[in-house]
Amino acid sequence: MPVFKRIFITGASGGLGAALARNSAGSDGCLGLFARRTDALQLLAAQLPGQCECYAGDVRDSDSLRRAAADFISRHGVPDLVIANAGVSIGTLTEAAEDEQAFRDVFDINVIGMMNSFQPFIAPMRNAGSGTLAGIASVAGYRGLPGSGAYSASKAAAISYLESLRVELRGDGIRVATLCPGYIETEMTAKNPYRMPFIMDADTAASKILRLLEAGRSYAVIPWQMAVVARLMHVLPRWLYDPLAARAGRKPRRSAV
């Protein structure tokens, strides 16, 4: 069973990312925390045991991630685990011309940002012959939801990207894991104007994710109840899924991230 001592997490300043940091921090380990909100990142780091390096940056900026990765590796060695957690969830409408930038932002953060998060660590992990790359996707990637065209599509793309990366790196000693949470209590879900079944608090979700990674899982949906719902969503025929999904609640829109 892998034991993760050196962990690098993106989107670590709040929500699930901060919870992952809290639940993985230990006096004998070190964390690399990457996020846009510097003040929140430093406040979190001050509360954690063990060594902690804070890196301010946006996952859309590949150069900032390369610099952070190089600095972390030079100080602590190749991480055992990299968690690409940074992500955004906002409502979008294709008919609204002003939502074009929001579509781009969601894809740039949720998909390209995940690739940027992993890229600088792959060669060092390959040379070390070990390491885990974990991507936070979502059950929203299983089927398209109304008003969530950008988010659902980006998470579907993330799931496929992670699968491609997993088989691409097979035999290199690098494990790739896809985690698909359901609803988690964070700033992103706080304004959702609809019921969110099986919603988890962030620390519960983080604890489950870390246990799954330590157990060597390469794909998981959490919680288990949402895994049942996700499987049902996946197999429902279009003639049944479409009228049911059309009545689903819609996330509030924003024009940009």
Would you kindly provide a written description of the structure presented here, covering whatever features stand out?
This protein is globular. It has helices spanning 15-24, 38-46, 62-76, 100-128, 149-168, 187-190, 202-214, 224-235, 238-246, and strands spanning 6-10, 30-35, 51-56, 81-84, 132-136, 175-181, 184-185, 200-201, 219-222. Helix content is 47%, strand content 16%. Helix 1 (15-24) packs across helix 7 and helix 3 (62-76) packs parallel to helix 4. It has a single domain, classed as 3-Layer(aba) Sandwich (Rossmann fold). Strand 1 (6-10), helix 1 (15-24) and strand 2 form a beta-alpha-beta unit. The strands form 2 sheets. The chain has a 7-stranded parallel β-sheet, sandwiched between helices. Strands 7-8 form a two-stranded parallel sheet. The protein has 9 helices and 9 strands. The protein has 257 residues and is of the alpha/beta class.
